[in-house]
Hints:
The structure is a single chain. The protein has four helices and six strands. With about 120 residues, the protein is an alpha+beta fold. It has one domain (about 25-115): 2-Layer Sandwich (Phosphorylase Kinase, domain 1). Strands 1-2-3-5-4-6 form a six-stranded antiparallel β-sheet, with helices on one face. Strand 1 (about 45-50) and strand 2 (about 55-60) form a beta hairpin. The termini are far apart.
Amino acid sequence: MTTFPRLASIVLLAGLVAACSSGGGHLPGTAGLTVEQLSARVGCAPRLQAEPGDVRTGHCRTPDGAFSIRTFASRTGRDAWMAAATGPHLAGDLWTVLSRRDVLGLLQERLGGDLYPHEG
Protein backbone atom coordinates (compact mmCIF):
# COMPACT_ATOMS: atom_id res chain seq x y z
CA MET A 1 0.00 0.00 0.00
CA THR A 2 2.85 2.42 0.60
CA THR A 3 4.37 1.81 -2.83
CA PHE A 4 1.98 4.10 -4.73
CA PRO A 5 2.45 7.14 -2.42
CA ARG A 6 6.23 6.72 -2.63
CA LEU A 7 6.12 6.46 -6.40
CA ALA A 8 3.89 9.52 -6.63
CA SER A 9 6.28 11.46 -4.38
CA ILE A 10 9.27 10.50 -6.52
CA VAL A 11 7.50 11.54 -9.72
CA LEU A 12 6.46 14.85 -8.16
CA LEU A 13 9.99 15.50 -6.88
CA ALA A 14 11.50 14.69 -10.30
CA GLY A 15 9.10 17.13 -11.95
CA LEU A 16 10.00 19.88 -9.48
CA VAL A 17 13.72 19.32 -9.99
CA ALA A 18 13.32 19.47 -13.77
CA ALA A 19 11.25 22.66 -13.56
CA CYS A 20 13.65 24.38 -11.19
CA SER A 21 16.80 23.37 -13.04
CA SER A 22 15.78 24.84 -16.39
CA GLY A 23 17.15 28.37 -16.76
CA GLY A 24 14.46 30.86 -15.91
CA GLY A 25 15.67 33.49 -18.37
CA HIS A 26 16.52 31.27 -21.30
CA LEU A 27 14.46 31.30 -24.43
CA PRO A 28 13.84 27.94 -26.06
CA GLY A 29 16.27 27.09 -28.82
CA THR A 30 19.26 29.27 -27.87
CA ALA A 31 21.49 26.63 -26.23
CA GLY A 32 23.41 25.31 -29.25
CA LEU A 33 23.33 28.36 -31.49
CA THR A 34 26.45 29.73 -33.21
CA VAL A 35 27.73 33.28 -32.96
CA GLU A 36 26.22 33.93 -36.39
CA GLN A 37 22.80 32.55 -35.41
CA LEU A 38 22.66 34.51 -32.14
CA SER A 39 23.76 37.65 -33.98
CA ALA A 40 21.06 37.16 -36.61
CA ARG A 41 18.43 37.08 -33.84
CA VAL A 42 19.41 40.62 -32.89
CA GLY A 43 19.92 41.93 -36.43
CA CYS A 44 23.69 41.85 -36.73
CA ALA A 45 26.28 40.39 -39.09
CA PRO A 46 29.16 39.77 -36.64
CA ARG A 47 32.79 40.62 -37.18
CA LEU A 48 34.38 37.33 -36.11
CA GLN A 49 37.51 37.11 -33.99
CA ALA A 50 39.83 34.11 -33.82
CA GLU A 51 39.85 32.48 -30.37
CA PRO A 52 41.85 29.56 -28.99
CA GLY A 53 40.07 26.27 -28.38
CA ASP A 54 36.32 25.89 -28.66
CA VAL A 55 35.44 29.55 -28.01
CA ARG A 56 34.05 31.74 -30.82
CA THR A 57 33.56 35.50 -30.57
CA GLY A 58 31.74 37.95 -32.80
CA HIS A 59 31.56 41.73 -32.43
CA CYS A 60 28.38 43.57 -33.36
CA ARG A 61 27.00 47.07 -33.59
CA THR A 62 23.25 47.63 -33.96
CA PRO A 63 20.93 50.54 -33.13
CA ASP A 64 20.82 49.02 -29.60
CA GLY A 65 24.59 49.52 -29.18
CA ALA A 66 27.90 47.67 -29.48
CA PHE A 67 28.39 44.21 -27.98
CA SER A 68 30.39 40.97 -28.23
CA ILE A 69 28.80 37.53 -28.45
CA ARG A 70 30.85 34.55 -27.34
CA THR A 71 29.88 30.87 -27.68
CA PHE A 72 31.37 27.91 -25.82
CA ALA A 73 31.56 24.19 -26.52
CA SER A 74 30.68 23.36 -22.90
CA ARG A 75 29.10 24.85 -19.81
CA THR A 76 32.43 24.36 -18.04
CA GLY A 77 34.08 26.72 -20.52
CA ARG A 78 31.27 29.25 -20.18
CA ASP A 79 31.41 29.07 -16.38
CA ALA A 80 35.20 29.55 -16.36
CA TRP A 81 34.85 32.61 -18.58
CA MET A 82 32.07 34.00 -16.36
CA ALA A 83 34.19 33.51 -13.22
CA ALA A 84 36.88 35.74 -14.73
CA ALA A 85 34.54 38.24 -16.43
CA THR A 86 34.37 41.82 -15.30
CA GLY A 87 31.51 44.12 -16.09
CA PRO A 88 27.94 43.32 -17.00
CA HIS A 89 27.13 40.41 -19.28
CA LEU A 90 24.19 38.36 -20.44
CA ALA A 91 24.54 34.57 -20.23
CA GLY A 92 22.67 31.69 -21.82
CA ASP A 93 23.42 27.97 -21.68
CA LEU A 94 26.48 28.01 -23.98
CA TRP A 95 26.87 31.72 -24.79
CA THR A 96 27.54 35.12 -23.28
CA VAL A 97 27.11 38.70 -24.48
CA LEU A 98 29.33 41.46 -23.12
CA SER A 99 28.22 45.11 -23.26
CA ARG A 100 26.71 47.94 -21.22
CA ARG A 101 23.79 46.95 -18.99
CA ASP A 102 21.27 49.04 -20.96
CA VAL A 103 22.28 47.31 -24.22
CA LEU A 104 22.14 43.90 -22.53
CA GLY A 105 18.62 44.61 -21.30
CA LEU A 106 17.47 45.22 -24.87
CA LEU A 107 19.25 42.12 -26.18
CA GLN A 108 17.82 39.99 -23.38
CA GLU A 109 14.32 40.58 -24.77
CA ARG A 110 15.36 38.74 -27.97
CA LEU A 111 17.92 36.24 -26.68
CA GLY A 112 16.72 35.42 -23.19
CA GLY A 113 19.50 34.59 -20.75
CA ASP A 114 20.34 36.01 -17.34
CA LEU A 115 22.05 39.33 -16.55
CA TYR A 116 25.25 39.25 -14.46
CA PRO A 117 26.27 40.51 -12.06
CA HIS A 118 22.82 40.44 -10.54
CA GLU A 119 21.68 43.78 -9.23
CA GLY A 120 20.31 43.57 -5.72
